[in-house]
Design brief:
Layout (H helix, E strand, L loop, with lengths): L4 H11 L5 E6 L2 H14 L6 H10 L1 H7 L1 H4 L1 H11 L4 E6 H7 L2 H10 L17 H14 L15 H5 L6 H10 L1
Parallel strand pairs: 1-2
Length: about 180
């Protein structure tokens, strides 16, 4: 989620003294929690949403430490502003922009002052409804640690493909569940 100052500095050396605008899309911790839960389930975990929320509220320091790069907005902004002290800074609300027109369209309109070109989304980080995440969790529970998980931890059955109706191994999985 964040680059270290040395990595940012290497970008700065390529950009020379160009006019720089930094755009930071901040995300509320409350909207990030369901997203992190979904990601853990997509990669084979089996804790329920309530269990995950309980862990986050009981031990927030541990969760923040595990995801520090994503949560550390102050550090992220500090790193960039240290390397580009004269840059124009724009801070935007990730959730509001995502709901309205999307990050790419917003970036083109507000920073580049252009209309975003048409592009086909790759769906790399697809968001799911809570019921779909629960279905993935149930798939993970049925499969156990040895087989559950999506790329890069992909095993025998990808729970995301099951939810999307794309799994070629769904029938054998259902047979296995039926037999148990």
């Amino acid at each position: 989620c964040t680059l270290q100052p040395a990595q940012i500095a290497s970008m700065a050396s390529v950009l020379n003294d160009k006019d720089i605008t930094l755009v930071f899309y901040k995300r509320a911790y409350s909207s990030l929690i369901p997203s992190i839960w979904q990601e853990t389930i997509k990669h084979g975990e089996t804790h329920s949403g309530w269990e995950f929320l309980d862990a986050v509220t009981r031990q927030p320091a541990e969760v923040v430490a595990l995801n520090a790069k994503c949560f550390a907005a102050d550090d992220t902004l500090h790193h960039w502003m240290t390397v580009f002290p004269n840059a124009r800074l724009i801070v935007k609300d990730y959730d509001a922009v995502s709901a309205h027109r999307g990050l790419v369209s917003d970036f083109f309109a507000s920073v580049l002052k252009q209309r975003a070109p048409f592009f086909k989304s790759l769906g790399v980080n697809q968001s799911f409804k809570p019921a779909q995440v629960e279905l993935m969790r149930q798939v993970n529970l049925c499969l156990g640690d040895a087989e559950a998980g999506s790329p890069p931890n992909k095993k025998a059955i990808n729970p995301v493909e099951v939810v999307n109706g794309e799994s070629r191994t769904l029938r054998p999985m259902l047979k296995r569940i039926e037999d148990n």
